[in-house]
Structure formats: C-alpha cells, structure tokens
C-alpha cells in the first residue's frame, strides 16, 4: 500500500501526573504501558496490519531519546518474529510469494510545538502521496483495511477523511472527556458520504451560551446534524492535494524557482500557483488555495478545512467523515479514565485467549485477567484481579489489588487495598493504606494508614523566576489532548462578502 503513516506523539498533559508534561518523574506519553506494553506499540501493530509504505514517528526533543530506544527494541523483536516466520513455510509470504518484511519505521524529532505547524513545516516536505495522520494513544480491534477501504471509496471532492467514534464505556468520567459539538451532513438521501462541517468545544459553547451555527452552513447543507456523542479519533486519511493546499508560500516559491531552471519547459510549472494540480479523478476544477493558519493544533486545521466547504461563494473541497461502528472496540488513552479502561480491555482480551499467571506466593490469588511483570515479589495471602503490575515491584502480605495499574519499581507494603488506582513508578504505599479511584504520582510516598478516595496524590512543584513564581500544574491547563498548546474555538469568521446587502 502506498499510504505513508505519521504517528504524532504528544506530551500527554491530560495523563498527568504520569507523563513528562508533569515533570521529570513521568514517562513519555507514547511509552506509558498498557498491559505492560508501550502504548505506541499497539499503534505500530495496527500499522503493520495495514502494510503502509512507511511509518514515521514524530515526537518532541524531550521525548526523543526515550522513544527511539523503545522503537529500536520493538523493531528488533519484529525482525526476529519475521525471520522466524520466514523459516516456517509459505505463511511468511505475501500473495505474490514475496517474503514478509517489517514495515519501515523512522523517527523524526519535531522542532515546533503545535501539531499544525509540525504538519505544515516539517511533514509536508516528506510526503510523497496520500498519507494518514495518527495519534500514539489508540487501541482498536477494527482492522485498518476498514479505514483504508472507506478512504479509497471517498467522494471525488473530499480532500481528507476525519474519523470519529462513540464512547461505549460507562466507566468514563464525563468531566474528563473532551466533548465537542460535531456538526456534519449525513447525506442520507444521496450517494455521497457524510461530510464534516464544523466543530465547537463544549467550553466554547458554554462560554458563549449558544451554539454558533452559521447561516452559510444551513443554506448550503439544510440536512445538518449536530452530535455531542462523537469523539475525535485524531485519525485523518489525507489526499496528496492537501500538501499543495497547506504548503507554505515560501516552500512553493522555492520549488517553482527550482523547476524554472530546467531547460525542458514541459517538465514542470514555473509559478507557485501552477503547482496546484487537480487530483487524478477530478479534472473538472482546480484546487483553490486559501490562506489557512497552521499555527494551531491539528484538529483545528481540519476543522478550518471543513469550514471551507460552506463559507465561500465558490464551492470548495470537503472533508469526509467516517463514524466508526459501535460494535468494534476503539479507545483513545488520552485521559486517565480512558487509560485505565484500555488496560482492562487488553486484560480481558488476554484472559479470553489464554490464562496468564504471574509469580505466586503462598496462598496468593492472581487472576487470569491480570498481568504481573518480571522480577516481582508478591508475599503470601495477596489477591490481584483485573490489574497490571509492572516490573521490579514488591507487594506485601495480605494486599488486595483490583482494577488497578501499578507501574514499574513500586513498593506496596502489607495489608493495603487498592481499587481502581494508578500508581506511578518508584512510588511507595505505606502499610494498611486504602486507596480508591485515585492516582499516585511517580516517586510519591503514601504514608501508612492513608485512606483516600477520588484524589490525585502528587508532589508540589514551585518554579521561581524574575517575573514571579508559578506551579507546574498551571502550565498543564494550557495543553490540549495532544500535549500541545491549546487555543479555544474563539476565532471569528471573516466576512467573505458572500451575503453582502
């Protein structure tokens, strides 16, 4: 398949205090474990099924070393698996008899903070054809061929296909969910696919006290639907045309000047405007370039692209919408309750395939729906159910752990009860403590006999500067779900003169 895949690794501010967005005590978001596997490995496995021509992992400089080391180990394992398959018959070949090879995985250090700027300034020069943008945090049982087929059969005037999914888990904290109002046209009475038209965050609607649906939109798409139940999957399948549309002016000019130096006039255009060519199946009209500000999160780039279809007098290309079927599992681990649910889902999948038991002491009960990492010590009369225990952990006598995620190098002393808890790396939980629906930051020491419910136990960071002091938590509020700076849906539409009186 000729699709390129780009996996964008954010800082994971909404997974604080377990990510680097919180401080040095956290992990890179892409490396948070789900069922004792790095989060990004599930995305890489999904890409392996799709057989993309190239997979590029994009992350900031602060995550670069950690992620590259993890990718190296992942690739070594995959190469070993492929070599093993190659030695055992024809199952290791494609339909054409070509031996299977691991999908090439490359790493790129991003220089910009905003995902939109990364796409425009850093990714566009690398794109050679149609491509897909992926987050590093999703787990799904829906095969990639479903997505690809939907994209291949898209309408001719669709620049890209945005993916939405419905939340199927009652355990999610609605306050943590990043809800938005998705405005789209279902096109039920036509052969056209659904089209994304606009999106507003819940915060923006609550601030303005109403949903700002434009008259332009309703006149052009009278059968418009508004849904608050659709969550953004941050998966975008894009046509190569989008490269030409978003390409910075200076980059287009540079290419134009290079081609103008060629002696053969038939080899290429000489002006930046001539570089914008219609896609192969739409020769009727030429792509119209509009000024689009890309210094913002990537989901806002596609929201602005969706608005192009109705806010201009001249028709513009549309953004298709693919709503995932509710029967298939799809979950983004971009908030803490979703991260815990992703762990539970993978534990149930493992337990349905085969029972896995970790090291057992005298009288221990370790359920088949639990995973215990390497080099763990579990003393007698303990109970671990529907939980993940990382590597090098020590769990004392008569401890009860249910529905929890324990990261690496954690010590839990005797007679502790943990229910629906995430405990960060190198933490310690004192004797006879009871934690329920809580989060413990890495390297935090919970005092003995502590009883908490629904709380986050974190260190307090104070940063002093010449302008004054601030806390680390205040900076976390300025991050979006991708880990990049948040800006609200507060831009006003410019009057394009379509309905001048």
From TrEMBL:
<dbReference type="InterPro" id="IPR051960">
    <property type="entry name" value="eIF2B_gamma"/>
</dbReference>
<feature type="domain" description="EIF2B subunit epsilon/gamma LbH">
    <location>
        <begin position="365"/>
        <end position="448"/>
    </location>
</feature>
<dbReference type="Pfam" id="PF25084">
    <property type="entry name" value="LbH_EIF2B"/>
</dbReference>
<dbReference type="GO" id="GO:0005829">
    <property type="term" value="C:cytosol"/>
</dbReference>
<dbReference type="GO" id="GO:0002183">
    <property type="term" value="P:cytoplasmic translational initiation"/>
</dbReference>
<protein>
    <recommendedName>
        <fullName>Translation initiation factor eIF2B subunit gamma</fullName>
    </recommendedName>
</protein>
<keyword id="KW-0963">Cytoplasm</keyword>
<comment type="subunit">
    <text>Component of the translation initiation factor 2B (eIF2B) complex which is a heterodecamer of two sets of five different subunits: alpha, beta, gamma, delta and epsilon. Subunits alpha, beta and delta comprise a regulatory subcomplex and subunits epsilon and gamma comprise a catalytic subcomplex. Within the complex, the hexameric regulatory complex resides at the center, with the two heterodimeric catalytic subcomplexes bound on opposite sides.</text>
</comment>
<feature type="domain" description="Nucleotidyl transferase">
    <location>
        <begin position="10"/>
        <end position="163"/>
    </location>
</feature>
<dbReference type="GO" id="GO:1903574">
    <property type="term" value="P:negative regulation of cellular response to amino acid starvation"/>
</dbReference>
<comment type="similarity">
    <text>Belongs to the eIF-2B gamma/epsilon subunits family.</text>
</comment>
<feature type="compositionally biased region" description="Acidic residues">
    <location>
        <begin position="474"/>
        <end position="501"/>
    </location>
</feature>
<dbReference type="InterPro" id="IPR029044">
    <property type="entry name" value="Nucleotide-diphossugar_trans"/>
</dbReference>
<keyword id="KW-0648">Protein biosynthesis</keyword>
<feature type="region of interest" description="Disordered">
    <location>
        <begin position="463"/>
        <end position="501"/>
    </location>
</feature>
<dbReference type="InterPro" id="IPR056764">
    <property type="entry name" value="LbH_EIF2B3/5"/>
</dbReference>
<keyword id="KW-0396">Initiation factor</keyword>
<dbReference type="Pfam" id="PF00483">
    <property type="entry name" value="NTP_transferase"/>
</dbReference>
<dbReference type="GO" id="GO:0006446">
    <property type="term" value="P:regulation of translational initiation"/>
</dbReference>
<dbReference type="GO" id="GO:0003743">
    <property type="term" value="F:translation initiation factor activity"/>
</dbReference>
<dbReference type="GO" id="GO:0005085">
    <property type="term" value="F:guanyl-nucleotide exchange factor activity"/>
</dbReference>
<dbReference type="InterPro" id="IPR005835">
    <property type="entry name" value="NTP_transferase_dom"/>
</dbReference>
<comment type="function">
    <text>Acts as a component of the translation initiation factor 2B (eIF2B) complex, which catalyzes the exchange of GDP for GTP on the eukaryotic initiation factor 2 (eIF2) complex gamma subunit. Its guanine nucleotide exchange factor activity is repressed when bound to eIF2 complex phosphorylated on the alpha subunit, thereby limiting the amount of methionyl-initiator methionine tRNA available to the ribosome and consequently global translation is repressed.</text>
</comment>
<dbReference type="GO" id="GO:0005851">
    <property type="term" value="C:eukaryotic translation initiation factor 2B complex"/>
</dbReference>
């Amino acid at each position: 398949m000729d699709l390129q895949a780009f996996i964008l690794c954010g800082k994971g501010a909404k997974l604080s205090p377990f990510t680097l967005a919180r401080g040095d005590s956290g992990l890179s978001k892409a490396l948070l474990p789900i069922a004792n596997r790095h989060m990004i490995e599930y995305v890489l496995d999904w890409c392996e099924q799709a057989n993309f021509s190239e997979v590029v992992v994009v992350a900031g400089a602060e995550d670069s070393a950690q992620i590259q080391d993890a990718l190296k180990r992942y690739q070594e394992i995959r190469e070993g698996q492929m070599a093993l398959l190659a030695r055992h018959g024809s199952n290791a070949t494609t339909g054409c008899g070509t031996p299977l090879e691991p999908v090439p995985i490359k790493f790129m250090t991003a220089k910009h903070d905003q995902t939109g700027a990364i796409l425009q300034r850093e990714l566009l020069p690398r794109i050679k054809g149609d491509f897909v943008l992926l987050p590093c945090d999703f787990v799904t049982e829906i095969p990639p061929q479903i997505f690809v087929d939907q994209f291949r059969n898209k309408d001719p005037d669709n620049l890209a296909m945005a993916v939405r999914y419905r939340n199927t888990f009652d355990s999610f904290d609605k306050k943590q969910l990043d809800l938005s109002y998705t405005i789209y046209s279902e096109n039920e009475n036509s052969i056209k696919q659904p089209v994304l038209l606009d999106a507003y965050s819940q915060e923006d609607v609550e601030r303005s006290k109403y949903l700002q649906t434009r008259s332009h939109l309703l006149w052009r798409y009278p059968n418009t639907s508004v849904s608050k139940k659709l969550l953004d999957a941050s998966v975008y399948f894009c046509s190569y045309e989008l490269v030409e549309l978003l390409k910075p002016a200076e980059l287009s000019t540079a290419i134009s000047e290079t081609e103008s130096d060629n002696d053969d006039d038939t080899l290429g255009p000489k002006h930046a405007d001539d570089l914008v060519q219609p896609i192969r199946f739409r020769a009727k009209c030429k792509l119209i370039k509009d000024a689009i500000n890309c210094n913002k999160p990537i989901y806002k780039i596609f929201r602005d692209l969706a608005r192009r279809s109705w806010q201009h007098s001249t028709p513009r290309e549309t953004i298709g919408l693919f709503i995932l079927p509710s029967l298939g599992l799809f979950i983004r681990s971009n908030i803490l309750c979703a991260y815990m649910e992703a762990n539970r889902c993978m534990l149930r999948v493992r337990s349905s395939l085969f029972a896995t038991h970790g090291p057992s002491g005298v009288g221990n009960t370790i359920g088949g729906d639990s995973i215990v990492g390497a080099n763990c010590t579990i003393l007698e009369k303990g109970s671990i159910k529907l939980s993940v225990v990382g590597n090098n952990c020590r769990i004392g006598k008569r401890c009860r752990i249910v529905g929890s995620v324990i990261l690496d190098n954690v010590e839990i002393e005797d007679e502790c009860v943990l229910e629906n808890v995430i405990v960060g790396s190198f933490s310690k939980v004192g004797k006879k403590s009871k934690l329920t629906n809580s989060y413990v930051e890495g390297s935090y020491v919970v005092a003995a006999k502590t009883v908490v419910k629904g709380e986050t136990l974190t260190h307090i960071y104070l940063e002093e500067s010449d302008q004054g002091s601030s806390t680390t938590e205040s900076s976390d509020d300025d991050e979006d779900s991708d880990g990049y700076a948040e800006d609200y849906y507060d831009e006003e539409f410019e009057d394009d003169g379509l309905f001048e009186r």
